[in-house]
Amino acid sequence: MSNNQxxxxxxxxxxxxxxxLINMLTGQETAIVSDFAGTTADPVKKSVEIFDIGPAxxxxxxxxxxxxxxxxxKIKRSVEVISRVDxxxxxxxxxxxxxYEVKLINQFVEQEVPYLIAHNKNDINKIATITRSSIKQHxxxxxxxxxxxxxxxKEKLIKALKRIIPETVHQQTSLIGDLVxxxxxxLLITPIDSEAPEGRMILPQNQTIRDAxxxxxxxxxxxxTELADFLKRGITPALAVTDSQVFGYVAETLPEKIPLTSFxxxxxxxxGDYQLYKEGTDHLSRxxxxxxxxxxxxxxxQTSCDDIGRVKIPELLKKHxxxxxxxxxxxxxxxxxxxxxxxxxxIQCGGCMVTRKQLANxxxxxxxxxxxxxxxxxxxxxxxxxxxxxxxxxx
Length: 395
Known about the structure:
By secondary structure, this protein is an alpha/beta fold. Helices cover 35% and strands 18% of the residues. The strands form 3 sheets. A 6-stranded mixed β-sheet has the order 2-3-1-4-5-6, sandwiched between helices. The protein has a 4-stranded parallel β-sheet with strand order 8-7-9-10, sandwiched between helices. A 4-stranded parallel β-sheet has the order 12-11-13-14, sandwiched between helices. Residues 30-41 and 301-305 have low confidence and may be disordered.
């Protein structure tokens, strides 16, 4: 699943036609359709190319009105999906609009997720004037009346979707496109350690190489152990990008005139709030004994003694600051700790495995609470005394 694709969540009560809607958009029987309510359990994702919109991930959720202990768990997982989508479709049918829908609308507003309201099965019951009036008392969202069995309604739904897709989805889609020109030489320094997958490169390196090709750069990839040998050839790259964990060595080896940054900082700029991270980095110098620092990983992976977030950053921070610091790690999209006020600082990974929206929603509670947030790459640049150099190219 591509982490850059538009994520569209489908929400509503049981048996409103959420699975049928997904099947209509994908043009195939992706989701199980049943006349029995409550067929969908865990949220189901499906990749699809939507004409005039592009690649997207459709997320089918369980009915928000499910019953029983298992039903409550389904509802909880459905609500959790809201913070992970870029936009949403609230599906209703049979002119049913009440507390269930209002609660979802409030969640969309709280999570800043744009949405539309679609009244399905209009071949059986068209949306009533009283239903429209009731909706408008709680929402300013656009309302469409359609059914998933009429192919003409697919275009109606796509046009409505286009109007709610947030501009942020299309912002900063290139990692290095505004930093280099076609034919520029891009130097990528990529250490291979126990964290690197066997026979492959890690995702940030992979995506940066593809981005460089898309921007017609001449790309040179070396391990840090061959960096000095490359420089002896007299080639001057327009930009050097390194893995953050070898920042110190690369900065000492690479001439000052060559712009330098890291994969993590590039992702911080594309996926996160770059200025927020930059300001949060200043707080590293203000840490005190006993401070609790939250490490947020966007993926789940097997850890080792080389683990950048769980091992290297904590060790370097303790050594550099001389403080008795505590660390809490949350990986993937696992629930955040309830007592977020107990954290003095949040250090977020580059976010290569999540969308911009997912990352923003992940950090929103900390931002609202006034807790500083920084990023792996910026933290390591600061620890190596090269923060200014690593961010200089961004202005």
